[in-house]
Amino acid sequence: MRILLIEKDGQDYLKLRQLVDEQQDDPVTMEWAPNHENAIRLIKKNNYGIFLIAFYDESQQSFIDWLYEYTTAPIIFLIKSWFPKAAPRLDSLRTEYINKAHISWALIKQMVHHFETLHQFQETGNKFLSAFMQASTPLCLLNSVGTIIEINDNALTFLGLSHEEVVSTPAWDIPWNKLTDKLRRRFHIAIRIARRAKTAKYEINIKGRTNKATTLEVAVTPIVNSQSEVIWILVEAHDLSAYKLAEQQLLQASQSDQLTGLPNRHFFLESLERAMLNVQNNKNYRIAVLYIDLDRFRVVNESLGPDMGDWLIMEIALRLQNCLPSNGLLARSGGDEFMILLDELSNLTDAIRLARTINNEVAQAFLLDGYEVQTSASIGIAYSTYHQSSNDLLRDADIAMYRAKAGGKSCYSVFNSNMHAEAMSRLQIEAELNRGIEQNNFVLVYQPQIDLQNKALLGVEALVRFYHPKYGLMSPLKFIPILEDTGIIIKIGEWILQTALKQLKKWQDEGLSIKHVAVNLSATQFRNKHLLESVKEALTMSGVAAEYLELELTESLLLEDTESAVRTLKQFKDMGIRVTIDDFGTGYSSLSYLRRFPVDSLKIDKSFIKGVVSEPEDIAITVATIDMAHALGLNVIAEGVENEEQRDFLRDHGCDCAQGYFYSPPINHEDFSKWATTYRETLNPTGTINTP
C-alpha cells in the first residue's frame, strides 16, 4: 500500500511514520507533502492507494474538490475532535475521519476495510436505497462519525432544505433554523451511543415546515458489517402514525418471502408456536402441519435456468393458495419447499384430503415460456399431540415428507412414532457411510453376464455393498437412497468406478477373457458436471481401454432432461464407452426417445423375467422388448435369470445376454476369479457346457 500524508506539522508526520514502520503485516510506503502544492506534484507523478489529510479549515475545499476529480483513492481526514465545527464537502463513499489522538495502523486498516464495505454497499445496495428513498418516513443515513451521506425526500420536505444543503454535512451542522443547542446535544449523545453499536431513541416536540406542532420519535440506529463494525448510522424521525406504518411495513418485509409474497419460515414458526400454545392449553384442540417438497425441481432449475425455476415456484405458490382452506396458513420455507399449518382441525382427515388435492393440482403440467414442465409434490403430514413442541411437530412433518419422497414421490405420508426412530437411525447410517471408504466398509461384488447363444462369459456387473459396523451387511435398497440424498454417492461412485476398472485390469492380466465391466450411474452422478473427468481419470489410473467400460443408466434418469442426457451420452460414445439402459420396461419405454439416445444395450428388468415362462403379460413385454431392441440395432441383457426355463425362453427368443443367480450370485473378486476359471473349464471347444 502506498500512502500520501498531507500534513504541515513535521512532528506529526514523524509520529505517523513511526507507526507505519513498526507494523510488520503489510508492505507499506509513506510519503509526505507539507502543503497542497507539493501534494499535487506528487499525486501527478505517483499512484497512491490512500490519502491522509490533516484538516483544519475550509480553505482546503478547492484542493479537496480537485483531489476527488483527479483520483478515486479513499481519503482519511486527521482531526482533533470527533465533531469538527467545519467539514469539507465530501464524497461520503470515499471519505472518513480519524481522531489524531487515537490514530493507529490498525485503525487505518479498519478504515480501508470500511471503504471496501461502502463500495460493496454501493454495488449491492440498490434495493435498499430504493426502499430508503421511497419510504414514507423521513430517513437520513450517516457515516460512522455523523456526516450525512444520503437523505430521502420526506426528510428534506420536513426540514425544508435541499439535497445539496444537507448531503456531505455533519448532521449537527445542517442549516435548519429549528436545530437548537439542546437538540444538538441530544444528537451528539445519540451518535456516540450508535458508535458503540447500540440504538438510541428519544422524543422531541417540534414544529415542522407547515408550523404544525409534531411529536417526533427519533431513532438513531447503527448498521454494522460482518465484523460487527459500525459502518453507517440510520436516523428515523416520525410521528406516531408514520412510525406505526413504517414498523408494520418492516415487519411485513421480515415476515414475507420475497419471491412469492407468501409468509416466510420465520412468520410460519411464530404462528405455529401460538397454535401449539392452544394445543397445550386445550386437550381437544388439534392442528396439523403439511411439509411440501417439489419433486424434480432441481432438474427444471438446472436445465431451464434459475429464472424459469423462480417462475415455476411462483406458479406453484398460486396453485397451493387456491387449495388452501380458510383455517390454513401457507408459507414458503425456502428453495422448493412449502409448509401449511391447519389450525383448529375439526377432523384429522382434513389434512389428508388437502394433501391429495395438492398432489393432483401440482401434478398438472405447467406452461412456462413455451415449455411444458411436469413436476409433483411429496408431502409429509404431522398431527399435534398434547405434549409436543412446535419444533417437534415441524420435524415430524419433515421426516414424513422424506418418507413420502422415498415412497415414489407425488404422494403423501402421515408421521408415526416409528419414523422418528428410523430418522435417527438414518442419521447414524449417514455418518457411517461418510466414513465407509476410509474404514474399508464398502466392497464390490461381481455378477457374471453370459452370452446366451454360445454360453461364453462376456462381462461382469460391479455392485457395491456396505458392511455397517453395527448392522452388518446392509441391503443396497437401504443405503443407496441415503447416498443419493446426501450427495455422498459422488465420492462413492468415483471409488466404485476406479475399483471396478482396476479389478478388470487385474483379471485381464491374469488371462481371464472379460470383455467389459458394467458400472451403474445414479441420477446425482449423471448430473454432476465433473462426471466425464472422473470417468477419464478412472480409465487412466487403471490402464483399461474405454471400450471395456459399460455404464448403466435407468430410463427414468435419462428422461429427466433429455437434451442434456443426449449430450452426455454422445460424449461417452465419443470416448468409446458402451452405454446400457437399465431396468428397461419399468418407465416410459418409448421408441421415440430410444431412437434419440446413443446407447448400445437394453437391460430387461428382473420383474418381467420372473414371470417370463408363466405370465402372459411378462412374456409379451419381454418378447416385444427383444424384437424392438434388435430392430434398433441394440443388444438385450436379461437380469434376474434364476432357472433353466427362463434361460431357455430368453435364448430361444433371441435375447443376447443374461445374468442372475442361475449362473452366480454377486460374489467378491476372489470368488469370482475361481468361478470364472471353473466356468471356463466347463466349456468344451464347441462352446457348450459339459454339464446338463
Automatic annotation (TrEMBL):
SMART domains: EAL, GGDEF. It comes from the Bacteria. Pfam families: EAL (PF00563), GGDEF (PF00990), PAS (PF00989). PROSITE patterns: EAL, GGDEF, PAC, PAS. Residues 285-417 form the GGDEF domain. SUPFAM superfamilies: EAL domain-like, Nucleotide cyclase, PYP-like sensor domain (PAS domain). It is an enzyme of class 3 (hydrolase). Its EC number is 3.1.4.52. Keywords: c-di-GMP. One of its GO terms (molecular function) is cyclic-guanylate-specific phosphodiesterase activity. One of its GO terms (biological process) is regulation of DNA-templated transcription. Residues 426-680 form the EAL domain. Residues 124-168 form the PAS domain. Residues 200-252 form the PAC domain. This is cyclic-guanylate-specific phosphodiesterase. It comes from Beggiatoa alba B18LD. The lineage of its organism: Bacteria, Pseudomonadati, Pseudomonadota, Gammaproteobacteria, Thiotrichales.
